[in-house]
Write a structure and sequence with these properties.
By secondary structure, this protein is α/β, with parallel strands linked by helices. The protein contains twelve helices and 13 strands.
Length: about 325
């Protein structure tokens, strides 16, 4: 099981410690570093900055949002950064949810998310293979565009720049069972949002007949500390925000996932409190047990013991949202690579 560093996205301003953490992770032998985006900083620009200051560590987006760019634009980002970094790029994509797609990007959320994802991936694969002009008569993506509001003069094109690798790894952030199952068929890896090493049965039906080399790369908060309850507070804050605020009351994929993991009543209560404006109460309503089982928090000995659970499952890459160099060093010493 390889270790990665998940930096996420910026908050109010630039995260000034991200570059230091990324270079420390490379020095410690971490396999990868990952950036993300929501509705603030983008995923590719910080990753390019990190690429310029490192030489070996793999570079991934976990995740870049599909609604933010056409699939050809995303492919351009990926092939460009792959060249600039000497073949270190890994492209992680996610569809996000209706709240973000329609509220931030001003686009309709696709009526068939599976089809939209499949078409998006198809176009990117065509760009990276560069075997001919990109052509797709899809339900959500058409290349060239032939809609009634178009000019009818669009031309099928292939990239001017030759991609460095046709097999640049492409991973998907999928949450629903059907979406996860499709991911195993069309992508090179899966980026779970929450992973509990003691509840792998939640995903078992979707992960049958995995192809060779398929990556399973969940994120987990890691923090070496004496007080477990205090160390879990950032995890609970994240869960409260995602489960309570990242979606509509009637359609929240994160809350649905928590429910499938055995915490349905708690998930609905978190939603109820958050949407009522009682955000602090929503965070406190997150069960410590759930926050703990998807994290690696506590003294070194406790983390070492719990890390063994992660090694026993199908996880190939553990992406740590580790907030400090000491935690990064401890996890490296514990032999997560």
């Amino acid at each position: 099981m390889r270790l990665g560093l998940a930096l996420g996205y910026w908050g109010r301003g630039p995260a000034r410690d991200h570059l230091d953490l990324a270079t420390e992770a490379e020095n410690l032998g971490y396999h990868s570093v990952w950036t993300a985006e929501a509705w603030g900083s983008d995923a590719f620009t910080p990753l390019t900055w990190i690429a310029a200051h490192t030489s070996r560590i793999r570079l991934g987006t976990a995740i870049a949002q599909m609604a933010a760019r056409s699939p050809t634009a995303t492919a351009m980002h990926a092939l460009t950064l792959d060249h600039l970094s000497g073949g270190r790029m890994m492209l992680g994509l996610g569809l996000s949810g209706p709240q973000v797609v329609e509220g931030w990007y001003g686009r309709p959320f696709p009526s068939s998310p599976l089809t939209a994802t499949r078409e998006y991936v198809d176009v990117i694969r065509q760009v990276l293979r560069r075997e001919g002009p990109v052509a797709l008569e899809g339900r959500f993506h058409q290349h060239p565009y032939r809609g009634e509001d178009g000019t009818g003069t669009g031309k099928a094109l292939k990239p001017i720049t030759h991609p460095l690798r046709a097999d640049l790894p492409l991973l998907l952030g999928a949450e629903g069972p059907k979406n996860i199952a499709q991911t195993t068929r069309i992508a090179d890896g899966w980026l779970p949002l929450y992973w509990s090493p003691s509840r792998t049965d939640v995903y078992q039906a979707s992960l049958t007949d995995l192809p060779d080399g398929f990556m399973i790369a969940p994120m987990a908060r890691a923090k070496v500390c004496d007080d477990v309850a205090e160390g879990l507070l950032p995890v609970k804050a994240m869960l409260g925000f995602y489960i309570g605020g990242m979606g509509h009351a009637a359609r929240n994929f994160h809350a649905d996932l928590m429910a499938r993991m055995g915490y349905e009543a708690e998930a609905r209560r978190i939603q109820e409190l958050f949407l009522a404006g009682r955000r602090e109460e929503a965070v406190l309503a997150v069960p410590d047990a759930f926050a703990d089982e998807i994290s690696l928090v506590g003294p070194r000995e406790r983390i070492a013991e719990r890390l063994e659970l992660w090694r026993k499952g199908p996880v190939t890459d553990l992406l740590l949202t580790a907030p400090d160099p000491h935690t990064l060093r401890v996890l490296a010493e514990l032999g997560g690579q």
